[in-house]
Design goal:
208 residues, mainly alpha
């Protein structure tokens, strides 16, 4: 059961964050930067995103209680949000949004591209934050499961860092067609996970 939870949490966050598909965006945002600067941006972006997701996992439930929002309602809303992201991935809408964010960053030449748009909203966006809160709710206060969730967040952040550091090689290896196919497959998987969140929320409401 604990292994099942860890695998489910990893797949959910990995698909939502989609670090491999963000490699081309990272290259676009850091275009013209020397290799050392690119590495610095990669490290800072993943650290910021990881901290945000850990904070969501640890304090998201407390925030829901403060706002008097039931976990079941949040599961349904979160599932619908994740499903929306999944449809964007399947139909290619998300890739266009990421391209627009990258173009804005290049045009504005903001000082800290690690925080925006890499950490927020590409890595730790609404979908990833929602997934972290939902997964923490599924842990049900079990400290071991919560520890597994935090470990999963760190692993996904590390995967994003590795993807950024190997961005040039990944882009050449996958090619345009490979990136599109991978995004579509991950989108279908995320859609199934999103539907499961909605089903869990509906069941919890009717069983209460």
């Amino acid at each position: 059961m604990q292994l099942d939870y860890a695998v489910s949490a990893f797949l959910t966050l990995f698909v939502v964050v989609d670090p491999v598909a963000l490699a081309p965006t990272f290259l676009a945002v850091t275009e013209g930067m020397p290799r050392v600067a690119r590495r610095s941006v990669a490290v800072r972006a993943t650290v910021i995103a990881g901290a945000i997701l850990i904070g969501a996992a640890l304090f998201g439930d407390w925030l829901l209680e403060t706002l008097q929002i039931s976990l079941s309602a949040f599961r349904i809303a979160g599932g619908l949000l994740l499903f929306s992201i999944a449809t964007e991935m399947v139909f290619g809408v998300r890739s266009r949004h990421e391209g627009e964010a990258a173009e804005q960053a290049l045009e504005e030449r903001v000082r800290n591209v690690a925080a925006f748009p890499l950490a927020i909203p590409l890595l730790a966006g609404p979908g990833a934050i929602t997934a972290a809160v939902l997964l923490d709710g599924r842990a049900g206060g079990n400290l071991l499961l919560r520890g597994e969730l935090l470990a999963v967040v760190i692993v996904v952040a590390a995967a994003a860092l590795l993807s950024f550091l190997l961005a040039e090689r990944i882009g050449r290896l996958l090619g345009l067609t490979g990136n599109i196919v991978l995004s579509r497959l991950l989108g279908v998987l995320l859609a199934a996970l999103a539907v499961q969140f909605v089903v869990d929320g509906v069941r919890a409401i009717f069983s209460a």
